[in-house]
Design goal:
homotetramer; alpha/beta; 9-stranded mixed sheet
């Protein structure tokens, strides 16, 4: 069924056969300017997690953070000294807030717009790398707060969200929006501790939400999980939302965001739209970038 | 003389003895909202450079970019496959666009607000790390385009910019602004190739501009070089702007930005102010972060 | 009691106040030549483990192994092509075969020979770094096979080995030997899977074996665990063998060796001595090195 | 002509169609035992260079060495503390002493024994990785000292060595030997400073020496350069010795050794043979390993 879903929602060629940007093309100047006009109070809310350097049940490959020059080399007798460090990140890890490039996933050997997987070589992606988002992603963000809808603090790992629920939040999603789905992951982690998300899963969108994405036509989709409910129901199509969004529709994904702060800020104001800015690093040939998106209310 | 300059412009205690954020405190909601109102056309201009992975005269310690799973492992016979990569960055390198944390520089064994260098240990900074900017830096950006003022394409390495020139650009700098100084570095590199910036230097602000910073009171200072003219004139105080701004005044610095695109966009519109967003990674104990700041006009 | 043990076995000044090599000084040319004469059959047995790149219960910080140029870039149409990779290792991890430098451990702020911990700065060790073993460690190796002595396949995590047992193996340990203690760790892992060695521990030498080390006077000590029984009995002195050997006696340690192959080879021959060669990387200021020691029988 | 040389010296199938070890098969127990018998004085001479962490003309991609826990965290008031570090190496860099795996080079899309380059994927080599040398390389080493033969301190970059010269050294090379060629590179660097070896080249073997290798049939070849004279004379076959040795004959190569110490030790004794031990790290799927080979005289 996932294969049919993929075909039904595929939008290759929409912006021409050579397009590498997909739904980022929806972020027109008009929409960007309109999003900026949403700012009322001037409150910035971070949606990235701290880079996880400590091993944990949900962090089997920790981020490297190494000091390379520290304060022990400074002295009161010397006018000038400094500190410096090194950071090493494999951004697709399951606790790192990151933006997936369109080249991150292949379906039947093809990435977005039908380009062959062979264009992603051992030295980097020649097509649809993260560089296509190098000018930043700026637009109208909307938060769909599912725990609030359901009257719970968080969804349990493995719980699926339906497209009806996405609509039932009452937030009107418009073409070109940056849609963020809150599942309460960070609240659960704070209360119960880390769990192995590969084994025990994550709450997320049911596969059928791919049609909803097709209909609503957002520019970007993000979640505090990985958008997909995990584990998926079809081993051959383990993450259908990733597959349909990144490969079929050209929708960039934001994984592992921190959305509890934003959910609180929105609930407090009764307002679920805001200016949203993602500033990926310009990694040549990159398959993604660690990011710290900022919502501005 | 630099020591006197440092004392004369020092603002320790301004936001209390425990403050770690310095001039970021100037980014009040009012200023953030006011900055958002500057957006007219909805044009996003990136101010970060591509992460420099290739060795070059100005890049002795290249960024690591390693593919860890590429398209060669995908097949048309398999529904799902993926690509992934690793990035390793020592952000204070001299071609990397980055935000300096206030703990990055010490003067006589002390960082901003008088905290001892010993609070930056071999496992990270306990005070004034990059985490204090974790909510993002959002404000009114202004571009001071020095080559345009002088009627040249670029300044030569080692050329100093005076505070009179900063004023002569005609851009009114206000308290809490994010001030960006364009020297034409990227244009020169594009035309003449890379040079060893440690040996041959960079155009930047003369030490006396520290007083200008004190008077204008910006939230953040940035440049396409390192703000300081290089090499400096006093070996004991090699980068006085860094020392006075980061340590004395608590002004975060943006180094090695790419500002030619922004300079062109501003000149085209005759408008030198814009919404400016910096979204540093939340690196626990970090001395800085690679960034790709976005100007929105 | 550990403090007394430390004082009782301390050998600071034995090779002069400036010595940085400790018991490596026992590896005289005579002993090296004598060790070479032990080779009979010409069988080389590796005592290093494969570098562990996969996350596991005993591997919370996996070794990085990244291909940086792979076969996907080669072609039959091109005469020449190549592959290359990158390896990143924090060698003191608990599954990595490594040699501890004498600067790796401090007791009351001092390393071997009384040098202050401050000589190990955030840019490396100025004293007793791994460089002192840069010429390689070559000598007579002897294997003390404790599971064989006890008639079991392996010792359980947390089981302590006494000095009486070390003697009871019947292997005569001589001054300047490289002493290897087999606990059967690899056999247990192969049979039962990985366990969290920090939580559940490792078999190893009881603290009192420090006196045995003092009396036998080996050049180097190694084990398939970390020499110390884990967890230790005194939280303030968590790894007394490390503390007494590295800091007090200047004995370099080999941790996390693979000794099951060597144990089998020795048992087969009824011979527990061999030429043993350790070739650490020359890491300037390093606190240790990943190694793959070779026993030659 | 290189293509003919390659065909003329190719030895695919010599140890069967599935062999991955090539000439390492020549290191029989008899040869290993015989090599051990060469040790007379018990002098160990390191043949690896210090891992080059500083940027230099010949080091565009420096080794990473990061302290991850230093002495600044220790205290006299605490019984136990420690230091630790991280090392990151792309071993095929041009100043790093390393062992090339047979999968490191491809000729017309094939590696040693005709295996396709596609067996080296973006996650590692499935054939002829460095693991095949995991038991260590132990054998009779012989040093061919070309500067001594020519009566100079060093050869200039780009100078070719002929097979006649290899013979003229008077050192009898036997089947299964580990042949080391000294060009004086380290002496030149010490005297004149670093040079860009990619641009200015390295002294090394003329392509015709491939036939000499075929005739002499060593187990391993090493040099203080990269064995090949650089730059080569045929752009399509830039490193014919690498191509013929690694791919055609299955001879592992040791690049960028430090051989001045060994040359001095041999000259002093008038003896050019010794026990030689290489202990590569067991890097799963690796294309090579940094090494510090030890000659024992």
């Amino acid at each position: 069924m996932s294969a049919e879903l993929f075909e039904a929602t595929k939008r290759w060629g929409r912006w021409g056969p050579d397009d590498e940007r997909g739904a980022l093309n929806l972020l027109t100047p008009e929409r960007v300017a309109g999003a900026a006009a949403l700012v009322r109070e001037g409150i910035a809310v971070p949606c990235g997690r701290p880079l996880a350097t400590a091993p944990a049940a949900d962090n089997p490959t920790p981020v490297l953070h190494h000091m390379i020059h520290a304060g022990d080399l400074a002295s009161e007798a010397t006018a000038f000294d400094w500190s410096a460090d090194f950071v090493g990140v494999a951004c697709h890890g399951n606790t790192i807030s990151h933006l997936d490039a369109l080249c991150h996933v292949f379906v039947e050997g093809k990435m977005y717009n039908g380009a062959p997987a062979s264009e992603v070589t051992s030295v980097g992606a020649q097509r649809s790398s993260i560089e296509v988002a190098g000018s930043g992603i700026v637009g109208r963000g909307v938060l769909l707060d599912i725990p609030r809808l359901r009257g719970v603090d968080w969804l349990e790992p493995g719980e699926a969200i339906t497209s009806d629920e996405l609509d039932a939040t009452g937030v009107a999603v418009e073409q070109g929006d940056i849609v963020l789905v809150h599942t309460g992951r960070d609240r659960r982690r704070a209360a119960l501790g880390a769990w192995n998300t590969f084994v025990d899963g994550l709450a997320g969108l049911d596969a059928e939400c791919a049609r909803w994405l097709y209909d609503r036509d957002p520019a970007v989709l993000g979640a505090d999980g990985v958008s997909d409910v995990m584990p998926g129901s079809d081993p051959a199509w383990p993450i259908p939302i990733h597959m349909c969004a990144l490969v079929g529709m050209g929708i960039h994904l934001l994984d592992n965001l921190r959305l509890d702060l934003l959910a609180d800020a929105c609930a407090e104001r009764g307002r679920w739209e805001f200016l949203f800015v993602v500033a990926p690093l310009q990694i040549g040939g990159g398959t993604g970038s660690p990011v710290n998106p900022i919502a501005i209310l």
